[in-house]
Amino acid sequence: MAAMPLPESGPGEGLDPVSLMSLVQGRVPDMPVEEAFVWFDAASPEGWRVEFIEGEIHVTSPRSGEHEEVVSGISGQVRDHRKDLGRYTSIGLCVPGASSTGWVMPDLVIAPKGSFANEDKYHDPAAVLLVAEVTSRSTGDNDRHKKILGYARAGIPVYLLIDREAGNAVLYTEPVGEKYEHQEIFKLSKVVPLPEPLGFELDTSEF
């Protein structure tokens, strides 16, 4: 699915985070939701994340240092074990069926190097081997519920959820339809065996 082109500038260009959040809380211009998504995406300050999940727009502020340390830790272990793979943060995916557009931006995407070597902002997920999400209080429910449906529908082989609030790493594999057939829960600090095509153990003791 091709992503809707983003405007070079938008009606909210230059909005500070407080002004943007006031719009999110109800003062949004009257427009179709897909158009509103493009508007927010163009208006959001650098570092903010705008996603379109299950037909709803979600705007989140920059992640905390603790959150980013976990993402960096996962990325570093992938690098150590699989130097042939690319590790992508803040890259957009077009997840078919999640909504009419299906635009999401996972915390970490693992795919062969060169998989996203184009100028698109949102990409076909066909090459993706793993998506990882690290929960925060504002995004945890989406990571635990709505995103599972979208990632399964897209046929992404592995979804790794680091649920910091629950203290668990949840590994979803074998996508079929709108769900993953296999789910394993590991306490953080344990080793998580990532299946092929990754094929190594992820040490969560640092998370």
Task: Outline the structure in words.
With 207 residues, this protein is of the alpha+beta class. It contains 4 helices and 13 strands. The chain has helices spanning 17-24, 33-43, 65-81, 140-153, and strands at residues 49-53, 56-60, 85-88, 92-94, 103-104, 108-112, 122-123, 130-134, 158-163, 168-176, 179-187, 191-194, 200-203. Strands 3-6-8-9-10-11 form a 6-stranded mixed sheet, sandwiched between helices. It has a 3-stranded mixed sheet with strand order 5-4-7, with no helix packed on it. The protein has a two-stranded antiparallel sheet with strand order 1-2. The chain is globular, with a radius of gyration of 17 Å.
Brief synopsis:
This protein is an alpha+beta fold. The chain has helices at residues 17-24, 33-43, 65-81, 140-153; strands spanning 49-53, 56-60, 85-88, 92-94, 103-104, 108-112, 122-123, 130-134, 158-163, 168-176, 179-187, 191-194, 200-203.
Lay out the secondary structure.
Layout (H helix, E strand, L loop, with lengths): L16 H8 L8 H11 L5 E5 L2 E5 L4 H17 L3 E4 L3 E3 L8 E2 L3 E5 L9 E2 L6 E5 L5 H14 L4 E6 L4 E9 L2 E9 L3 E4 L5 E4 L4
Parallel strand pairs: 4-7, 8-9
Antiparallel strand pairs: 1-2, 3-6, 4-5, 6-8, 9-10, 10-11, 12-13
